[in-house]
Amino acid sequence: MEEPALVLEGIRAGYGDFQALFDVGLRVTPGEAVGVVGPNGAGKTTLLRVISGMIRPTRGTARFGEVDIAATPAHELPASGIAHVPENRRLFPHLTVEENLKVGAFIPSARKRFAERSEYVFNLFPKMAQRRHQLAGTMSGGEQQMCAIGRALMSSPRILLLDEPSAGLAPIVVAQVFELVKRIRDEGLTVLIVEQNVAQVLRVVDRAYVLDAGRVVAEGASADLAADPAIRNSYLGGH
Ligand code: ATP
């Protein structure tokens, strides 16, 4: 089966009367890892919410292969291959690691493959296998992030949307999370990752979009963006 591309054109979206995104265009081709970076409040989370169907754009088109995202109920999008690891992880703290993984495998096709998928996740994160019976809420921030990514991988997604996976984690744990993202990407999964940690995410992704005040203000290959003086000054602290 040909892998689908994610294509957004002219997306406007917001909350009530407040417009958070202005004519945003974005493309992620199969097998790519793409970053969306930008300051607080730029609209990065809102963009991921549009792609996972949590909010409807007021204008523009969003397609994942043949799937018209805006015309598909959000609960049907996981079956189209879209998996979202939301901001702050949103694990079920009073469920065990394994039970959280079960939640990630709620679509019928994934439920059938639970044993195989959980083996894949436990292989990717051996620590999760050791902790499978531990309540998710009692794990460290880094472990919870791994569990949230593992949960998203349970549905065998064709694109993984990651919202600030490094948020609130100690630098050494941040490095581990990015290493994992790189591994997932190297295994061929398409990844779209939102980050404020611009320097580190540019080392992991192929291309990135810079979002500022709801608009795409720059896009390009990671190496080009990392070398761009304007980007360095605005987002990399001039270093
Ligand atoms: P951050 O890194 O701080 O989360 P962001 O780039 O992800 O920033 P968004 O969370 O998408 O930005 O927010 C974009 C704008 O939309 C902000 O002005 C924010 O206040 C507003 N916003 C976000 N969520 C809501 C909501 N549920 N209701 C109303 N306004 C919202």
UniProtKB/TrEMBL annotation:
One Pfam annotation reads: ABC_tran
Name recorded for this polypeptide: ABC transporter ATP-binding protein
Against PROSITE patterns, the record matches this protein to: ABC_TRANSPORTER_2
Where's the ABC transporter domain?
A: 6-238
**MF annotations from Gene Ontology:** ATP binding
Q: Which UniProt keywords apply?
A: Amino-acid transport, ATP-binding, Nucleotide-binding, Transport
Q: Does the keyword Oxidoreductase apply?
A: no
Q: Report the sequence similarity comment from the record.
A: Belongs to the ABC transporter superfamily.
